[in-house]
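Chapter summary example.
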Amino acid sequence: MIGIMLLALGRRLFWLFVGCVGFVAGLQMAQFYLSMQPAWVALAVALGFGLIGALLAVFFQTVAIGLGGFAAGSTISAHLMALMGLAAVPMIVFVGGIIGAILLYALFDWALIGLSSVAGATLIVQAFNWNPRIEMVLYAAMIVAGIFFQRALWRRQQPKIK
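The structure predicted for these 162 residues follows.
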């Protein structure tokens, strides 16, 4: 459900994008660092990250842009490495996060559309256990569909110049 919302409404609901990406990043970190704890601990950590991200997006947009871009970029790079059959290398995941933050700052609207589409598609594809080739095709198709859908919504919001 979170993936679908990010795929379709990531640009329109920036706070939702940052909150969802914070939740996913928090869940991944909790599963990695707190693997011996009960599942509710990982969910509580993830919920905390998500709430902090959403609140930052509402009250401190500049900070939230950097954190949201970093979380999305690192999550996407970790997933791409997994799709290629590689273990997540912390340095590459960190660099992916830095790239995501820079992209979101420099090209806010387009980067938000792209990152939220990729993040949404990533969450959707991760929820299913399909053949890797089918996953890659669906992943690419969902990214393209998310970008076109969000661009159409953005175009409708922009005032017409006469």
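To summarize the output: Residues 2-155 form one domain.
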